[in-house]
Structure formats: structure tokens, C-alpha cells
Design goal:
Helix content is 26%, strand content 22%. It is of the alpha+beta class and 374 residues long. The protein is globular and about 55 Å long. It starts with a helix and ends with a helix.
């Protein structure tokens, strides 16, 4: 998993030692009408992100103004060297919080030489699912947990030859002895707002050096696009601080919480007072019949990553069993107490892993709840 890569290779982060004040002198130079478009895509691991920049003669007004581009898929685990051209199809534009001005970030789908989607391009299928279910207006909000690591792969702020005190004082904590890395969190938050991502909040998590930001509510395909770009922005911000971001679902063994991507979900019938709770209960019943299918979609290794986290301890359910309950963080599906009291709203699927692909997560939920009878 990626955290093992970090621990074995991230002994130094040279980018953190360059002078960012000097960089600003060059970023402030006028660039005329031409703009920089940074294309972002998911690599062959299903969780890693890649990017490269293209100059455009003028600022794009819509996705269709952006050209299809290509890259060496053999260097991203997506093609063989003898036939390596892989193609980037732009799907969404965001203002660039790093370069500013009219420069943009561009989320892309990836396609092989034969015009078929790459194995980790789950967006194409997700869009098809969302289009079929658009009349039900599926809304999502994902709580993205992550862990900050020092240059040596050790959790940021932890003693180098030991451990911090037991969990308890760190969740939503304040003070230098309880929260580590707040500057990174604040910078990321503001950068996402600049980029137009619907970030709805952030907080320190139960394990020290672990944080969470929430994206949503968004409808349909926007959830996957926005969360992937928010992850990219987080990695870029952390670069500047010389800190590594890990989305590993269980970065530290022992009595420490793992990291998830709790997914809040609702359809239009679930959000109305008349019959809302009945629609929520029907959705949970449908999900209970497809537990294995969901588990396989909830991390890049079809459950192998998540089984380290979903143990029934540390505010998780068991990966082997499906459960649901009101205000119960030990269940697969949690119904918030206020939802149960008012009789309509949404449900929270607590099973997705922190390194999940949100396109796969949102697609399988809509398949099960909205399209199972089709």
C-alpha cells in the first residue's frame, strides 16, 4: 500500500526546503493572454494522482475548449512500453489556487489507445449510473479522513522513539500538544474554496496527526470530481510544508483509529417529510442485500485494505457483517439521530475506506438504491 512506499522512500522532501518567497517573484510575472492548464488524472494504482501542465492560448470558458492530451501510460502503471500512449479527456475545470490568475486545474478521464477507458477510469461508468438516476437527485457528502506523515514516514508530530498519549484529547482538539499540522489544514481549506470545491468543514480526528475534511452536499458525478481534486490540492499544499499525506485506512497498528471516507447519501424521496424515513429504511434494506458488492467497491483492493480497518473496534463495524442503527458509529450504516427524530434526511455509510475511489463508491450506492429494479 502507499504508506509502505512513503516509509521506504520519503526520507527527504526537498521541495519543503526551497524558498517559496523567491517563487512568488516569478509567479507574479504577467503572462499575457496565455494560461496554464494543469491536467490531473488517476494512475493505474487506483489511488495515486498524476498531473502535467499545458499552455493554452486563452483561458477556457468550458470543458469543450480544452484539447485531449496524452501521456506515457507505461510510467503510470496503465500501459506497456511498446504501446504507451494514453489519453486525457478533460471533464471539469477548476480555478488554480497555486498559480492564480486565469490558470486552471483540469480533472481528466483516462483512455487507452483503442479508445476504451483504462482499468482505473471508473468515472465513465459512474457518469452513466448518475445519468440513469438523475430524476432521483442523488446527493452525497463524503468525510475524507487522512494522516499527516513527517519526511521519514512517521506520523507528523509524534515522538520519534515512542508514541503520543492515548486517544482521547485529540479529536477536535486545540493546543500545540493536541493537534499537529493545522497550518496545512487551513491552507488546504482555503485553496479548495478558491478552486470552487464545495468543502463544508474540517476537524482534527481521533488519532493525533489525523484530520478530516468534508466535501458536499453535491449531486451525482460532482462528488467524485470534487473529492479527487480536493485530494490533489491537499497533496500539493503538503508539498510546500514538507509533509506527506497518507490516505491509508490503517496507518498505525495497535490502539489507534483508522481512516475512512464516511459517505452521506440521500435521494429526493429520502429528503421529504412525507415518506422520507420509509425511503431511508428501504435504501438500507437494499444495501443489506449487497454487502459484499459494496465492500469490494470501497477500497482499491476489493476489501483487502479495509479489512485492516473494519474490525468492529475503533468506531467501525466488522467487514464481514452488515448492520444499521441510529446514532451508532459501530454500524455499517448510521442514521443520524436528528434524521430519526424528524423522519427524513439522509443515511451515512461508514464502510468506505479513506483511499476509496469516490466514483466507485457513489456509483455502487446509486446502483443498489436507485437502479436495482431496472
Amino acid at each position: 500500500c502507499l504508506i509502505h512506499f512513503y516509509k521506504s522512500t520519503m526520507f527527504s522532501v526537498p521541495n519543503a526546503h526551497t524558498d517559496k518567497v523567491v517563487l512568488q517573484k516569478y509567479l507574479a510575472l504577467p503572462q499575457g493572454e496565455r494560461v496554464q492548464a494543469l491536467y490531473i488524472w488517476i494512475d493505474g494504482t487506483g489511488e495515486g494522482l498524476r498531473s502535467k501542465t499545458k499552455t493554452l492560448d486563452k483561458a477556457p470558458e468550458k470543458v469543450e475548449d480544452l484539447p485531449i492530451w496524452n501521456y506515457d501510460g507505461s510510467s503510470t502503471y496503465q500501459a506497456e512500453g511498446r504501446n504507451s500512449d494514453t489519453y486525457l479527456h478533460p471533464v471539469k475545470i477548476y480555478p488554480d489556487p497555486f498559480r492564480g490568475g486565469k490558470n486552471v486545474l483540469v480533472m481528466c478521464e483516462t483512455y487507452k489507445y483503442n479508445k476504451e477507458p483504462t482499468e482505473t477510469n471508473h468515472r465513465k461508468f459512474c457518469l452513466e449510473v448518475m445519468t440513469k438516476a438523475k430524476d432521483q437527485k442523488p446527493w452525497f457528502g463524503i468525510e475524507q479522513e487522512y494522516t499527516l506523515l513527517s519526511e521519514d514516514g512517521h506520523p507528523f508530530g509524534w515522538p520519534k522513539n515512542g508514541f503520543p498519549g492515548p486517544q482521547g484529547p485529540y479529536y477536535c482538539g486545540v493546543g500545540a500538544g493536541r493537534v499537529y499540522g493545522r497550518d496545512i489544514v487551513e491552507a488546504h481549506y482555503r485553496a479548495c474554496l478558491y478552486a470552487g470545491i464545495r468543502v463544508s468543514g474540517t476537524n482534527a480526528e481521533v488519532m493525533p496527526a489525523q484530520w478530516e475534511f468534508q466535501v458536499g452536499p453535491t449531486e451525482g458525478i460532482d462528488m467524485g470530481d470534487d473529492l479527487w481534486v480536493a485530494r490533489y490540492i491537499l497533496h500539493r499544499v503538503a508539498e510546500d510544508f514538507g509533509v506527506v499525506v497518507s490516505f491509508d485506512p490503517k496507518p498505525m497498528e495497535g490502539d489507534w483509529n483508522g481512516a475512512g471516507a464516511h459517505t452521506n447519501f440521500s435521494t429526493l424521496p429520502m429528503r421529504v417529510p412525507e415518506g422520507g424515513m420509509k425511503s431511508i429504511e428501504d435504501a438500507i434494506d437494499k444495501m443489506s442485500k449487497h454487502h459484499i458488492r459494496h465492500i469490494k467497491a470501497y477500497d482499491p483492493r476489493e476489501g483487502k485494505d479495509n479489512e485492516r480497518r473494519l474490525t468492529g473496534a475503533h468506531e467501525t463495524s466488522s467487514i464481514h457483517d452488515f448492520s444499521a442503527g441510529v446514532a451508532n458509529r459501530g454500524c455499517s450504516i448510521r442514521i443520524p439521530r436528528e434524521v430519526a427524530e424528524q423522519g427524513y434526511g439522509y443515511l451515512e455509510d461508514r464502510r468506505p475506506s479513506s483511499n476509496c475511489d469516490p466514483y466507485r463508491v457513489t456509483a455502487v450506492i446509486v446502483q443498489t438504491v436507485c437502479l436495482e429494479d431496472q
